[in-house]
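Researcher: Here's a chain I'd like modeled. Treat it as a single chain, no partners, no ligands.
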Amino acid sequence: MVFGNCISKQRNSQVTLQLQENLQFSVEDGVFWVDTNARFLFINDAACSLTGYSREQLLSMTMHDIYPNLSAKIWAKYWRTLRQQGSFTFESVCRTQESWSFLVENIVIYPLPYLEHVGKEYGCIFVRNINKSKQLDVSLKTSIKELECRVQQLTAELKEAKEQSCREIVEARQTLEQEAAPHSFWPSIPHLNQVFDFIEANYGQHITVYDVAQAVGYSTAYLSNQVKSKTGRTIHNWIVERRMAEARALLLKTDQPVNQIAAAVGYPDPGHFIRQFRQLYSVPPKEWRNIHRCQFGIQQDGIN
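Model: Modeled as a single isolated chain. Structure tokens:
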């Protein structure tokens, strides 16, 4: 070994033995023994593989030849740091024989990384290619940043969706309340006000078209024709719609059983009510209640 022979010439067997023990590095990392002038005194096989130079070539070179950013001034500063601290770490760019450049981490790792003998100083540098780890680090940071951006985007989208859902719930509740309110449910047709007032006051009873006509003093045929021509709906349609509007409100706002609600809106026969409700809304009253309570955020014991 060149560096070992160099020390042996100085006739110091103890230093030679110590150096030879310290030269047992991992074959995966480059090892360079250097002097104060940055000349290479010993290199291992990994150092040759790392730089692309042969052992003979490296032993005729200095660190400045493979570290393009390492000036004599910086090297002198590093050497003072090594002398004072005994070890230190720095990153630098290393250049291969083919002029490829890559980032390396330079670490002094031995128990006695800095040696002095007969007025001459020696140091050992452990070199590791960290290009891949740096690239992975950059890639990881980029991925984390992208993930954070995506999380923020999804959070904003969920917030907007929640706010939109709340708005829809409020609007739906207002619609149901308006439908159930007498002043907004009925059309504004003055000469038919008596008709709608009677239905509003009696839709919870078992009333027929005949009952409505008798209450307002018109024949059934005439009144039916008037209501149909003015509103586009029959008297029976208006009775059913008013009953169903109230039924929907009760299904949402109360826990009353279906048969009780049926009776409250003018259906003595719960079966008739269920069939009529299903015909209009495609599902039976109980299922409609479950679906719309979930949609409107209403608890089983009433409105939140």
